TrEMBL record, chain A:
Protein origin, superkingdom: Bacteria
The protein, known as: DNA polymerase III subunit delta
Biological processes annotated in GO: DNA-templated DNA replication
Record-linked Gene3D superfamilies: P-loop containing nucleotide triphosphate hydrolases
UniProt cross-references to Pfam families, sorted A to Z: DNA_pol3_delta2
GO molecular function: 3'-5' exonuclease activity; DNA-directed DNA polymerase activity
Automatic annotation (TrEMBL), chain B:
Keyword flag Nucleotidyltransferase: yes
Species this protein is from: Lapidilactobacillus dextrinicus DSM 20335
Domain DNA polymerase III delta N-terminal: 27-150
Protein name: DNA polymerase III subunit delta
Enzyme class, UniProt record, top EC level: transferase
């Protein structure tokens, strides 16, 4: 069952009051659904010196230290890298075996736990099985299926309600992105901070133009799409996060092509490309459209296997061209 | 000495010159180690050990400035007739970007070259393939100096030099055996010279070296250059490609790395082909792809051996293999070998090595 942040806070307030807090939780929810807010709330609730009606005050020294990340008993593991390795978990385990520095409970959070390598996840298992007392460990993830079943079964799973797409879209628009692109971005897994990060580096308009120039050439069956990868896409999509975004943009575009082709009664992602797509949809057979979609769906698994971005894109370009030939 | 060839001699000719014959400025140019060693030995025996102490100067121009060296060169020899000043690392004569921090006084050098000290032998030790002849200072040096050629020997020159070496060292060798030797050492003079001495020891004094001897003693030098792996694979020289591949693996190269080199070459071929067919010129292609024009030039020549579809297929196959290897579905050494065999058997029209 999905619950809103307020309901969950209420729930945890009761649990903590009854002293029935479990030792390990898994927070599942879309980006910006408030997983970290909830984790922080729990830590504050446990450490706050001035709890009122089961709510932390948010003003005392403890609450503020947690908010600023200065409390040694509230530890967040957050990695910008693609994976969380076994060494990092080993370090964490060492921390876990110590009692609280200031003699209380400790709270550990592993953000994006799906990034743990199998080895890392397995090394965590033993701890989850035999918890040291006075420790709460919270794992957060956007993708539940990526967490090992053996881990899942040892945790209490809490599912958070995702913010509605409309709210997210509005928030993205406020960063200065045009309405179509915000709509596309709102359906991706990227957080607002991520998006803000890119906008400082690249121009959103140029990003879309480059992307569509490439895709249009593919759909127009032009071989020059292959060279565009090196001449334009690589220089625009430099950041690693942007490189992860490209499959999403492509998937959104091709699922639009699918929608147009089969005249499905659902709104487009790229609302401004209706005519462009309609024209191509008329030229392609239904098999071709589904085949295109299938190729693009395989793109991310290649990226995750560490095949270089350029290779992935060139490979995809050529395969799409083969389907259309 | 207006004629360029007039002031260029071989190391063998150099060895016959006496100290008095030697002009005041000498430039040793080339990279053939055996020849360089001979030249070095020659310069070192010019002065007697007692004289060397006072009158032999050696300056590393990547650390010392030319001015210091010239001061030494301009002074009169102590207790002797000659002074020898050896200048190593004259990188400023080449086109190489300058890495050293030393500021050289080139004007002083040019002045010195116009009027060298007659009692000094100034030697530039340029163990480089070639110099940048557009530079003013290089022109000045080349104009004044006697150039000793220590560049890589090839073809006829190589055979002649080896024969001469045999004569000097009283080694007898059959013509066919000498040919085999050259082939085995991949036409490297330095290596051949070393192997000749081994062979002479192997057959014993007064004996002639036969083909069978060379076959037994000298091992085939395997090209361990990644670029020749790529070239051989794409040019259909299967045998050479496979031997190189094996050698590269023995040397500890990572198959994935080799694969990515092949991928990038195939990518370039495909890109140049597409762009050429779209009417781009060589310069435009280089500009668009941000690739060095010379690489593009070569790619444009090579690209014509392949069909567009063929290159596309190859590119797909390469990336797919990369994915297979990285997701643990293929054994990297074997899979790449298979791919090399496949690619190199596409073009049978090419002659084999």
């Amino acid at each position: 069952m999905k619950a809103s942040l307020e309901t969950l806070e209420q729930h945890f307030a009761t649990v903590i009051a009854a002293n029935e807090l479990s030792h390990a939780y898994l927070f599942v929810g879309a980006t910006n659904s408030g997983k970290m807010t909830l984790a922080q709330w729990i830590a504050q609730r446990l450490f706050c010196t001035n709890v009122k009606d089961g709510q932390p005050c948010g003003e005392c020294a403890e609450c503020r230290r947690i908010e600023e990340g200065n409390n040694p008993d509230y530890l967040v593991i957050q990695r910008a890298t693609r994976t969380i390795g076994v060494d990092e978990i080993r370090g964490l385990k060492q921390e876990l075996s110590k009692s609280g520095l200031e003699g209380r409970q400790r709270v550990f959070v592993i953000q994006d736990a799906d990034k743990m390598t199998p080895a890392a996840a397995n090394s965590l298992l033993k701890f989850l099985e035999e918890p040291a007392s006075q420790v709460v460990i919270i794992l957060t993830t956007t993708r539940l299926a990526r967490i090992l079943p053996t881990i899942q079964s040892r945790l209490q799973i809490v599912t958070l309600q995702s913010p509605t797409l409309a709210t997210r879209e509005q928030a993205i628009q406020q960063l200065g992105v045009d309405s179509t692109f915000s709509h596309v971005l709102s359906t991706t897994q990227f957080s607002l901070e991520d998006i803000q990060g890119w906008l400082e580096q690249v121009d959103a308009v140029q990003l879309q133009q480059t992307f569509w120039r490439w895709l249009t050439q593919i759909l127009a069956r032009k071989d020059s799409a292959f060279t565009l990868v090196q001449t334009q896409i690589l220089s625009t999509f430099k950041e690693q996060k942007l490189q992860q975004l490209l499959p999403d943009l492509l998937l959104a575009a091709l699922s639009d092509l699918f929608t147009v082709k089969f005249a499905l009664n659902r709104p487009l992602n790229w609302t401004n490309q209706q005519e462009n797509l309609q024209q191509f949809a008329n030229q392609f057979s239904t098999q071709q459209v589904t085949a295109l979609l299938e190729i693009v769906l395989g793109l991310r698994s290649m990226q995750e296997a560490n095949v270089s971005f350029q290779n992935v894109l060139e490979y995809t370009t050529l395969r799409l061209l083969v389907v259309l030939a | 000495m207006a004629n360029k060839k007039a002031n260029r001699i071989s190391v063998t000719q150099l060895k016959k010159m006496s100290l008095t014959d030697l002009p005041p400025v000498v430039l040793v140019l080339g990279q053939e180690q055996a020849l360089l060693d001979q030249a070095k030995a020659y310069f070192e025996q010019l002065l007697s050990p007692e004289e060397q102490e006072m009158n032999y100067g050696r300056y590393d121009l990547s650390e010392d400035s030319i001015g210091t060296a010239l001061d030494d060169a301009a002074s009169i020899p102590f207790f002797g007739d000659w002074r020898v000043v050896m200048l190593t690392q004259p990188t400023f004569l080449t086109g190489e970007a300058r890495k050293n921090k030393v500021d050289h006084e080139f004007d002083a050098l040019i002045d010195y070259l116009a009027q060298p000290q007659p009692s000094t032998k100034l030697i530039f030790w340029a163990n480089y393939e070639k110099l940048d002849e557009r530079k003013k200072v290089t022109k000045a040096v080349e104009k004044q100096a006697l150039i000793v050629d220590a560049s890589k020997l090839q073809g006829y020159q190589l055979t002649k030099a080896l024969q001469q070496l045999c004569q000097e060292q009283k080694i007898q060798i059959e013509t066919a055996a000498l040919e085999l030797l050259q082939h085995r050492v991949d036409d490297q003079y330095t290596l051949a010279a070393k192997q000749l001495q081994q062979l002479a020891l192997y057959v014993g004094p007064g004996q002639k070296i036969t083909m069978a001897d060379v076959d037994q003693v000298v091992e085939q030098v395997v090209d361990d250059d990644v670029f020749s792996l790529v070239a051989n694979t794409l040019n259909g020289q299967q045998r050479a490609a496979l031997t190189t591949y094996r050698q590269l693996l023995i040397n500890g190269n990572e198959p994935i790395q080799l694969l990515s080199l092949i991928t990038s070459q195939v990518r370039l071929l495909l890109q140049t082909k597409i762009l050429r067919q779209n009417g781009f010129s060589q310069g435009d292609i280089a500009g668009q792809l941000k690739v060095h024009p010379y690489r593009v030039k070569l790619a444009l020549q090579q690209e014509r051996q392949f069909g567009l579809q063929q290159l596309k297929d190859m590119s797909l196959e390469l990336v797919n293999l990369d994915y297979q290897i990285k997701s643990g579905r293929a054994n990297k050494e074997q899979a790449l070998q298979l791919l090399i065999i496949k690619f190199s058997s596409r073009n049978h029209s090419q002659t084999r090595k």
